[in-house]
Amino acid sequence: MSGDSGLRQADAPSHLPLIAPSLPRRMACWLYEGMLLFGVVFISGYLFSTLSQTRHALDNRHGLQAFIFLIFAIYFTWFGAKGQTLAMKTWHIRVVDRQGQALTQQRAFVRYVLSWVWFLPPFAATRPLDISAMETLVLTLGWIAIWALLSRFQRQGQYWHDIWAGTRLIHDERKPLPPVTNTSDQRATPS
């Protein structure tokens, strides 16, 4: 049993059934992840603006975008190698490789890069069209819905970027261990 992980040894990822979570649950997790990433983007943007001494929001825009891409890469690679982000823990979803083992950092990074298929096609398609932000949003949300529904046509119910990366999302019902109380530190109180 590992004391720092808070999980039972018998509940290691290799012992979990490789059952894909339902599409609505995966999408709820996806939306929750987006809400959590808002805080990451806010702090990252503040840090970048402070360090680069940016005075106007449009100054260093491409540098900020590259910095946030790097922060996201670190975030998803780190938590991907750990098996779960906070949103995935909340929705009992775990990312593993095809055999059900934990991801390496390299595989987690590949998964992160391939996950941009959720956004890049509509952004690339709308860029030369010079359409409004609202139209871009509608096209992007339509693409996201189509991309999510395409997982229904995949034999294991996985997103296609997970198949290409050699990863899979699985249902994770492991229960954390109760907190350990250290009785050796308790001092007898005088009566």
What does this protein structure show overall?
There is one protein chain. The chain has 191 residues and is mainly alpha-helical. The chain has one domain. Helices cover 51% and strands 5% of the residues. It contains 7 helices and 2 strands; from the N terminus they run H-H-H-E-H-H-H-H-E. It has helices at residues 23-52, 61-82, 86-90, 105-114, 120-126, 133-149, 160-165; strands at 93-97, 167-171. Strands 1-2 form a two-stranded antiparallel sheet. The chain is globular. The relative contact order is 0.16. The model is unreliable at 1-12 (pLDDT under 50).
Chain oligomer state: single chain
Mean pLDDT: 84
Helices and strands: which structural class?
mainly alpha
What is the total tally of β strands?
Answer: 2
- Unreliable segments of 5+ consecutive residues: 1-12
Topology (elements, then pairings):
Elements: H1 23-52, H2 61-82, H3 86-90, E1 93-97, H4 105-114, H5 120-126, H6 133-149, H7 160-165, E2 167-171
Antiparallel strand pairs: 1-2
Which terms summarize this structure?
single chain, 191 residues, mainly alpha, 7 helices, disordered N terminus
Summarize the structure.
The protein is mainly α and 191 residues long. Helices cover 51% and strands 5% of the residues.
